[in-house]
Automatic annotation (TrEMBL):
Name listed for the protein in its UniProt record: Lipoprotein
Domain of life according to the entry: Bacteria
Region feature (Disordered): 28-47
């Protein structure tokens, strides 16, 4: 098995899971009672009323992103910070009849990785910046009709049991 195929397959499965969870039923009717000893489960943080959503724009219309191919570039502009990120497309796939998945390097391989999904003309996904040790979730504001960023620092992620993270200077 080649590593790039494994990585692409893993990212595709990750994006499908995100879309499946996001599109699933919203009414959880379970008869489970919360355990008094367990900590409450927190929902992903959304910008509070005092925070401004960091809306983004793309230089390619969302409806045309499925026409991109490997080697093409697109820009995502954070309208609040006035920062523009250049994405160099690695792959574009129709993972489901109504879902397009895009993987891209941000600037170059060392800067970061973008994994995006488009469903019903709405943009979702993740932007990971390695040098800044920062991750943004791309979410969609239905009321505004625009995608925005939610900061997700790496240090807030769960760690798997059993060992230290793998590190290599070969990348």
């Amino acid at each position: 098995m080649k590593f790039p195929n494994f990585l692409h397959t893993s990212l595709s499965l990750f994006l499908i899971c995100i879309v499946a969870i996001g599109c699933g039923p919203s009414d959880n009717k379970t008869s489970e009672k919360p355990n008094a000893d367990s900590a409450p489960i927190e929902a992903p943080s959304q910008p509070t009323l005092t925070q401004q959503k960091e809306y983004i724009k793309t230089n390619v219309p969302i409806s045309s992103l499925n026409e991109l191919s490997q080697g093409d570039s697109m820009n995502i502009t954070n309208t609040i910070r006035n920062e523009t990120y250049t994405l160099k497309i690695r792959s574009v796939r129709n993972t489901l009849p109504t879902v397009v998945s895009i993987t891209a390097n941000i600037e170059d391989r060392e800067t970061g990785l973008a994994t995006l999904s488009i469903k019903d003309n709405q943009l979702f996904g993740m932007l990971e910046f390695y040098k800044e040790n920062l991750r943004y979730q791309v979410a969609y504001d239905s009321a505004a009709g625009q995608a925005y960023l939610v900061e997700r620092p790496f240090e807030n992620e769960d760690e798997l049991e059993g060992g230290t993270p793998l590190e290599s200077s070969e990348y």
